[in-house]
Amino acid sequence: MSKFGELIDAQVPVLLDFFTEWNEPSIAMNEVIRHVAAALGDKAKVIKIDIDKNQELAEALRIKGLPTLMIYKSGQMVWRQSGELDANTLISIVKEQA
Predict the structure, then answer these.
(1) Interatomic CA distance for residues 94 and 43, integer angstroms
(2) Which of 4, 19, 50, 87 is at a distance of 20 to 30 A from 63, taking alpha carbons?
Protein backbone atom coordinates (compact mmCIF):
# COMPACT_ATOMS: atom_id res chain seq x y z
CA MET A 1 0.00 0.00 0.00
CA SER A 2 2.92 2.37 0.61
CA LYS A 3 3.78 2.00 -3.08
CA PHE A 4 0.26 3.21 -3.88
CA GLY A 5 0.87 6.34 -1.84
CA GLU A 6 4.00 7.04 -3.89
CA LEU A 7 2.09 6.49 -7.15
CA ILE A 8 -0.68 8.96 -6.38
CA ASP A 9 1.46 11.66 -4.75
CA ALA A 10 2.22 13.56 -7.95
CA GLN A 11 1.82 17.19 -8.95
CA VAL A 12 0.19 16.12 -12.22
CA PRO A 13 -3.13 14.24 -12.31
CA VAL A 14 -2.77 10.47 -11.92
CA LEU A 15 -5.37 8.46 -13.85
CA LEU A 16 -5.84 4.95 -12.46
CA ASP A 17 -7.58 2.24 -14.46
CA PHE A 18 -8.60 -0.71 -12.27
CA PHE A 19 -9.22 -3.73 -14.50
CA THR A 20 -9.02 -7.50 -14.90
CA GLU A 21 -7.83 -9.54 -17.87
CA TRP A 22 -11.16 -11.41 -18.09
CA ASN A 23 -13.67 -8.55 -17.83
CA GLU A 24 -15.06 -7.48 -21.25
CA PRO A 25 -15.51 -3.75 -20.45
CA SER A 26 -11.98 -3.69 -18.95
CA ILE A 27 -10.58 -5.21 -22.14
CA ALA A 28 -12.54 -2.71 -24.24
CA MET A 29 -10.96 0.17 -22.29
CA ASN A 30 -7.37 -0.93 -23.07
CA GLU A 31 -7.24 0.95 -26.37
CA VAL A 32 -8.93 4.00 -24.85
CA ILE A 33 -6.43 4.13 -21.97
CA ARG A 34 -3.53 3.78 -24.42
CA HIS A 35 -4.89 6.68 -26.48
CA VAL A 36 -5.43 8.84 -23.37
CA ALA A 37 -1.87 8.18 -22.16
CA ALA A 38 -0.43 9.11 -25.56
CA ALA A 39 -2.54 12.26 -25.82
CA LEU A 40 -1.69 13.52 -22.34
CA GLY A 41 2.04 12.76 -22.46
CA ASP A 42 3.79 14.20 -19.40
CA LYS A 43 0.75 16.29 -18.38
CA ALA A 44 -0.56 13.27 -16.44
CA LYS A 45 0.40 9.79 -15.29
CA VAL A 46 -1.74 6.89 -16.50
CA ILE A 47 -1.52 3.67 -14.50
CA LYS A 48 -3.34 0.39 -15.04
CA ILE A 49 -3.91 -1.75 -11.93
CA ASP A 50 -4.99 -5.40 -12.26
CA ILE A 51 -7.29 -6.03 -9.31
CA ASP A 52 -6.64 -9.78 -9.45
CA LYS A 53 -3.00 -9.03 -8.59
CA ASN A 54 -3.84 -6.17 -6.17
CA GLN A 55 -6.83 -7.52 -4.24
CA GLU A 56 -5.95 -5.77 -0.98
CA LEU A 57 -5.81 -2.38 -2.70
CA ALA A 58 -9.04 -3.07 -4.62
CA GLU A 59 -10.82 -3.94 -1.36
CA ALA A 60 -9.42 -0.87 0.42
CA LEU A 61 -10.71 1.38 -2.40
CA ARG A 62 -14.02 -0.52 -2.60
CA ILE A 63 -13.67 -1.38 -6.28
CA LYS A 64 -16.93 -3.08 -7.30
CA GLY A 65 -17.65 -2.38 -10.98
CA LEU A 66 -15.08 -2.72 -13.73
CA PRO A 67 -13.43 -0.85 -15.13
CA THR A 68 -13.17 1.69 -12.31
CA LEU A 69 -11.35 4.89 -13.20
CA MET A 70 -9.95 7.31 -10.63
CA ILE A 71 -7.99 10.53 -10.79
CA TYR A 72 -5.70 11.54 -7.95
CA LYS A 73 -3.95 14.88 -7.60
CA SER A 74 -1.32 15.49 -4.90
CA GLY A 75 -2.38 12.30 -3.14
CA GLN A 76 -6.11 13.15 -3.02
CA MET A 77 -8.85 11.47 -5.06
CA VAL A 78 -10.53 14.17 -7.16
CA TRP A 79 -12.68 12.04 -9.49
CA ARG A 80 -14.00 8.48 -9.71
CA GLN A 81 -16.28 6.57 -12.06
CA SER A 82 -17.08 2.96 -12.84
CA GLY A 83 -17.74 1.94 -16.43
CA GLU A 84 -16.45 2.74 -19.88
CA LEU A 85 -15.73 6.21 -21.25
CA ASP A 86 -14.49 7.35 -24.64
CA ALA A 87 -10.96 8.74 -24.94
CA ASN A 88 -11.93 12.38 -25.62
CA THR A 89 -14.21 12.55 -22.58
CA LEU A 90 -11.55 11.01 -20.37
CA ILE A 91 -8.84 13.36 -21.70
CA SER A 92 -11.09 16.35 -20.94
CA ILE A 93 -11.78 15.14 -17.41
CA VAL A 94 -8.05 14.64 -16.71
CA LYS A 95 -7.18 18.06 -18.14
CA GLU A 96 -9.79 19.69 -15.86
CA GLN A 97 -7.82 18.33 -12.88
CA ALA A 98 -4.45 19.65 -14.08
Answers:
(1) 9
(2) 87
Mutual orientation of helices 87-97 and 24-40 as an angle, nearest 10°?
50
Domains of the chain: 2-97 (3.40.30.10)
Nearest residue to 48 (alpha-carbon basis) of 93, 89, 15, 6 = 15
Sorted by sequence, the CB contacts under 8 Å of residue 79 that are 6+ apart come out as 69, 70, 71, 93, 97
Structure pTM? 0.95
Q: What is the pLDDT along the chain (98 residues), one digit of tens a residue?
A: 568 999 899 999 999 999 999 999 999 999 999 999 999 999 999 999 999 999 999 999 999 999 999 999 999 999 999 999 999 999 999 999 98
What do you get for the CA distance between the two ends of the chain, in Å?
25
Q: Tell me the three state secondary structure of residue 7.
A: helix
